[in-house]
Specification:
The protein has 220 residues and is α+β, with helices and mostly antiparallel strands. It contains 5 helices and 6 strands.
Length: 220
């Protein structure tokens, strides 16, 4: 279910006001038995103002940015952590995921590290297993993020079957060279450059924590 554009009324307001002003001027002219020079000048000014308002409204229809349509992601809300993680790692993952879900448009996220799903949080799909597809492999190989601004137009969307089926946008952010932070949004083209920088910073912090604690755990 999509949400209506919250700026719709604002964008149409100049057209409505301008059109209403023009209609009232016409009615006033028709009901005036004798036209004076001052009224004629006032009518001309009113017509100009109405025309300017209508033109402004038409321009706003073209240039004013519209909020992307959002959907209600299909799935159940949940918070799943791998059982065998150190407490410090669990705390770090909980902190990072909470920040991303509350401060960005992210509605579903997965942390995939060293071939294992460490965390799933937000709106969850029935499938929990992550199978590396071409997109995630490229992210791991290049250690560069991939932002799929409108997931439905990409053939590679089938590899994200562990996200809600109607996920609109996806960011795959590398966690060092051993993992990927996968984030799903409920609106296309909804992540800003600031969001991307924020996500990259959190992923770098996770990379330090995970590499330290999981290396210690494996050595023991």
């Amino acid at each position: 279910m999509t949400k209506s554009d919250p700026n719709l009324v604002l964008r149409r307001l100049p057209i409505v006001v301008g059109g209403l002003g023009a209609v009232l001027l016409l009615i006033n002219r028709l009901l005036t038995p004798e036209l004076t020079e001052s009224q004629a000048r006032g009518d001309v000014l009113g017509v100009i103002l109405s025309a300017v308002l209508i033109l402004t409204g038409l321009i706003w229809q073209q240039v004013q940015p519209r909020s992307p349509d959002t959907v209600q992601l299909i799935g159940e809300e949940g918070f799943v952590l791998a059982d065998d993680l150190p407490e410090a790692v669990k705390t770090e993952l909980a902190w990072a995921s909470h920040l991303l879900l509350t401060n960005t448009v992210t509605r579903s996220l997965v942390v995939f590290y060293q071939g294992k799903v460490l965390l799933r949080r937000g709106i969850l799909a029935p499938k929990s297993e992550v199978v590396l597809g071409q997109i995630l492999k490229r992210v791991l190989e290049t250690q560069k993020a991939v932002y799929l601004v409108a997931l439905k137009v990409y053939p590679g969307r089938i590899e994200f079957d562990y996200l809600p089926e109607n996920t609109q946008g996806v960011i795959c952010q590398p966690i060092g060279n051993q993992g990927v932070l996968i984030l799903g949004a409920n609106a296309p083209r909804s992540y800003t450059k600031q969001d991307e920088n924020w996500i990259a910073g959190i992923a770098d912090k996770l990379a330090v924590t995970l590499s330290s604690y999981l290396q210690i755990a494996s050595d023991n």
